[in-house]
Amino acid sequence: MSEKYRVVIVGSGPAGLSAAARAAELGMPHILIEKTDHLSDTIFKYQKGKHVMATPSNLVLRSDIDFEAGKREHILGTWDAQIEEHKVNVRLNSEVTAITGETGNFTIELKGGDTIQAEAVVMAIGTQGNPNKLRCPGSDLPLIQYQLDDPGEYFDEHITVVGSGDAGIENALGLAADPAQRNTVSILNRRAEFARAKPANVALLEEAEREGRIAVRRETNPSEVRDNELVLETRDGTETIRCDRIIARTGSQPPRGFVEGCGIEFTSEERSAFPKLTPSFETTKNGIHVIGALAGYPLIKHCMNQGYDVIEFLNGNHDLKPADEPILAEKFAALPGNRSVDEWLEIFRANIVILNELSPLQMRELMLDSDVAAFDSNDVIFVRNDPGSSMFCIAEGSVLVEVNPDDSSITVPIEQGSIFGEVGLISGRRRGSTIRAAEPTVTLELSRTAALKLIATVPSAGRAVNRITIERQLLQMFGSGLTKEDVSELVEAAEVVEIRAGQNVVEEGGDDKDIFVIQQGSMIVEKNLGGKPIFLSYLPAGSYFGEMAVIDGSPRTATVKAAIKSEVVKLPGDTFLRLMEKNPALRERALSDMASRRQVNSFVEERKESFSSAVDMYSETAKFLVDNGIGEATDVLLIDETLCVGCDNCEKACADSHEGLSRLDREAGRTYAHLHVPTSCRHCEHPHCMADCPPNAIKRGPDGEVFIDETCIGCGNCQRNCPYGVIRMDAKPPKKPSLLSWLLFGAGPGPGEASYSWRKKTADKKGLEQAKQAIKCDMCAGIDGGPACVRACPTGAAIRVAPEKFLTFTKLAEDVD
């Protein structure tokens, strides 16, 4: 006859240990089942010497066993000793193969044939046993491993860590910690931000990058694994690096087959979805509870609190509130209605589209890193051109967007459940419009970190944000009086596709019939003439292409390929045709756009013999400009060397406008034919420099200028990340002595603004050479008349242009005519 317990706890990670310790303390008949020969396999598998964090710091710990930040070995030793002290009933080397039965009478089957009976089951099995595998050619080669036990075992190797979460960062730091090991360590992050990692880990990684101990490769994916080589897909194309070993830390998935076999339902069909849970951690299979990482709560302190709480619930303590209840209660206190924390959590989850599939546990975690606010009718939430990279969600009420800066009465509504502010989140631009409450409104404001983590880790949230973004982009781009209902079919059918640099999206002569909208990045359009690709035009983010083949059914008349790594929204042509049929104004606009493009194509075909040399010259010049960063620029400085007289007025004017410090080097940079691209900021659409700025000191102004504000800490990340060498680090200005100090003691430069030469000299004298700040072109933001370099050029040689206005075949046609 098998043993019977009040509760069986499956898995001895932090959640399971805490649950078992609480059961032992309460005298509850229990057993803790672990499939390995040791406790807490999750922590046991951490790399040796790893420092384990105890976050969130403001959350109290509820548990009968201790936990505070410290080394892996110390934490494991403490838990082993305390589990023994509490006389927890532990069964090691026992793998659960099935759980059957009902509340009060469950049968737990073990590998080998033994069974255990229980009234309730607490599943704390985590997800670490199901790592996500690399999915690229060569992913079965032996140089790939999914676990790092001891970083000290490896010497003189080129090691690449794939994965930008906490585990990947900690592995990379461990491998690069001892210079005597002489390892060359790289870490790949497919995004620009480390959205999944703790800020403290990101800070340590950035420090290692600054010191040259780790090469951090952002917006990079593994493309192919070869013997001792790794092919990378980067923002700018393909690159091959030496690689002796790959540590893949790309996350893990719940053991879904086993969990569903126990009768438990998941929140969705997504691979990364979690089980459906009640606030007391009970699943859709009554009597089986899920806690820990399998519940979507991977932080150790959260897991341990859950272990304590679930046993209290089973012991009849139904009034117990989660440990974060006081924090959330204080956060919600200013909201109207005198509702409880649980009521507000459900309102936010149910009413806000991007949060619909989150569990109560995930909602609580999200709220800890978010702000809530209530607004009365007509209250301003934020103002046009305000800085800000957070995203807002409307839980109750609605808002109005002032679309015309000259007339605040012209507005567009955004209804309850939707989001706003996502443009600042995605692009880093200042707020594009003033937004005010249309009625009494309650908002949830997600910090940039919280929003990016939500999008990255909750597929349903990512899809919802993407859907709203596509819908708004289509309405803004096509206009013509369209409504959300008009484009709903097109939005539902839309597919977001990542395109690597140089990859063709459509090919000349092709008979595919889709339309594409450029969401991020840029495209170049080429036409084959005489066996050679001829550059026709440049398409920035926000443009669309492909409509010609859809409207008249013709083959593709040109090739469109990515100038840099890009994202496009793919729209089915037949759906677009149906939309045009219902909206004559849209059809008229599309036909007009198509006619102008056909005119360029016809012009090229008719005149190609008469100015073939000009075509070749233009195409080579355009290719040179794209290769030198014009493909991702929004505003670039070009110098026509046939007009330039070398007076350096441009540099002098730049210095005069920026405290004696020029942000322009006229002679530096590359030249093709008569066009010179000096060392000056391109103000990229998605700036490399902005991607990894710890204090978020790099921002985009209302006119698209990328600038660095006074919060710069001089870390140098932006300088290292800029591929065009347009950022430099210089002495941070020391504080200027007061006027009284100058009068009495001669301290400082006297009245007026301190010159750059004085600031630099003083910094050097005081040994402040380590106090640096980043310096770069800001397009003379705030200075009347626009960029000083252009205004000061006596011959008109210096021009600042948006690439789409310069890189077009129409420009060549005008010149030739």
UniProtKB/TrEMBL annotation:
InterPro entries: 4Fe4S_Fe-S-bd, 4Fe4S_Fe_S_CS, cNMP-bd_CS, cNMP-bd_dom, cNMP-bd_dom_sf, FAD/NAD-bd_sf, RmlC-like_jellyroll, RnfB_subfamily
Domain 4Fe-4S ferredoxin-type, residue spans: 635-667, 672-703, 704-732, 771-804
Keyword Translocase: no
Molecular function per GO: 4 iron, 4 sulfur cluster binding; metal ion binding
Domain of life: Bacteria
SMART domains, per the entry: cNMP
UniProt domain Cyclic nucleotide-binding: residue ranges: 354-455, 478-597
CDD domains cross-referenced by the UniProt entry: CAP_ED (cd00038), DMSOR_beta_like (cd16367)
Keywords: 4Fe-4S, Electron transport, Iron, Iron-sulfur, Metal-binding, Transport
Protein name: Cyclic nucleotide-binding domain-containing protein
